[in-house]
Amino acid sequence: MSMISGDKSSTEILSLKSSDNEIFEVKKEVVLESITLRGMVEEDEFSDTLIPLPNVEGKILSKIIHYCQKHTEARAKVNGSEGAADSKEIKDFDSEFINVDDKTLLGIILAANYLNIKDLLDLGCQKIADNIKEKSVEDVRKTFNIKNDFTPEEEKAIREENLWAFD
Amino acid sequence: MAETAFSNLSNDVVLNIFLKLEDDPRNWARLACVCTKFCGLVRDVCWKNKCLQTIPSIVSDLLSSSAGSSSDPPGGWAALHKLSICCPGLFRAGVLLENSDFGLERELGPDENYLSTALGSSRVTEPSSTPPSSSLDSSTSAAQLDGVVVKKGRGYSIAKRRRKSCRSVKSHLASGVWNLSREQGNKLLASRFRGDCLYICDWPGCVHIEEKRKYMLFRGIFTDFKGSRVWRTINDGNRSKIALDCAFCSCKETWDLHSAFCLRRVFGYHDDGEPVVRAYVCENGHVSGAWTDRPMFT
Fold this sequence. Notes:
The complex is a heterodimer of chains A (167) and B (298). Chain A is mainly α and 167 residues long. Helices cover 57% and strands 8% of the residues of chain A. Chain A has helices at 28-31, 35-42, 58-78, 83-97, 102-115, 118-134, 137-143, 152-161; strands spanning 13-17, 23-27, 50-52. In chain A, strands 2-1-3 form a three-stranded mixed beta sheet. Chain A is elongated and about 60 Å long. Residues 5-10 of chain A have low confidence and may be disordered. Chain B is α+β, with helices and mostly antiparallel strands and 298 residues long. Chain B contains eleven helices and nine strands. Chain B has helices spanning 11-19, 25-31, 36-54, 56-65, 76-85, 89-92, 104-108, 139-145, 166-169, 182-188, 229-236, and strands at residues 86-87, 172-173, 180-181, 198-201, 206-209, 214-222, 255-256, 277-281, 286-292. In chain B, the strands form two sheets. In chain B, strands 3, 4, 5, 6, 7, 8 and 9 form a seven-stranded antiparallel beta sheet that branches. In chain B, α3 packs across α5 (76-85). The longest helix of chain B is centred in the first third of the chain and has 19 residues, at 36-54. Chain B is globular. The relative contact order of chain B is 0.14. Mean pLDDT of chain B is 78; it is low at 100-105 and 112-164. The A-B interface holds A 103, 106-107, 109-110, 113, 121-122, 125-126, 128-129, 132-133, 136-137, 140-141, 144-150, 154-167 and B 1, 4-10, 13, 16-18, 20-21, 24-27, 29-39, 78, 82, 86, 134, 136-138, 140-141, 144, 167, 170-173, 250.
């Protein structure tokens, strides 16, 4: 999937390669949303402008690029005259964007952490937090594939200690 | 699926998520029950930082006075955090102890006629009231609430009392402001213990209106308990502990401060012999107790 910008400005295009060898062509300004990539680009390691991302699969990377593009555009608009309207627009975008299944959500968080995109990481973490809030202990384990590694005695003790939280 | 398992998240990402749940203390408590990794993070980071944030002077007093310059308060961060927000509940504040002799049995020896009722596994309720809305996670905790421990050898017995709801019997989030102050502690202790540093929650604490009277349940902590005069009094007097466990840490027994004469004498008793105030302290200096309104003298 390629996302070459239509406009003819001198904006540089960089290529990002996912772990499953999908190539994404992205405007440099969008790439710079990632602090990690910003560092790589500035160090000028990638003379052929192809940046391999072995930790991120294509499906997730595509979503991340979409997020970064939207936010770059929103920021550009704010510098114009449409501040308040965009704020609602971006909030709506964010809540729809992060409304994904648990597996994708974890993938986004892992990638946002690796790529160091703070707003996206916060968005993802907040979504997981909201999900956890309503779940029972057993459901949290099931959803996130967490093994209950307490011994029976430990589990009994920890439940007893925190019984007040289960009303 | 393994690549996107929660376990792959680094601790700071997990903590990022946990921090977004800090507004309701029950969230962290439930997360601590999920797995050992979460438990460790909640205890060592979340609850520790919460204590540093909400009760910084108590924390610094506790840490500066602890022997061997431990980085953890006595009883741990979990206990300290729980103490700052949880009411001990009627049971661990000693309100449910069978008080017809108010400790004399311990002083004078057992009374053969005075025996505890049998322990049942059913929940304790008033016959006319609705059943408690809260449900206990395990039958073990239900058994622990009902009358609990009887230690005949010590001549002290605990009988079950009928209670309006389970919720008021066990620990729960305290009503009122979650603040601990030394002034309150001073109001509780007899004057010769003024040098001891006891922090108690602000008046009136967590209010429980029971059929006989109103109880204002409080909790607190001695900083440097082992260096305190209260401790010396208990220790030198070879006071025996009672089988009432601490509401906050793993101590299974506590000392009755009222019968050890550590509380202000002026508080006195009600007509039925119940003390106006009672308090219990554990080895780690955690205190649970209950005020009642002073009786009106005619």
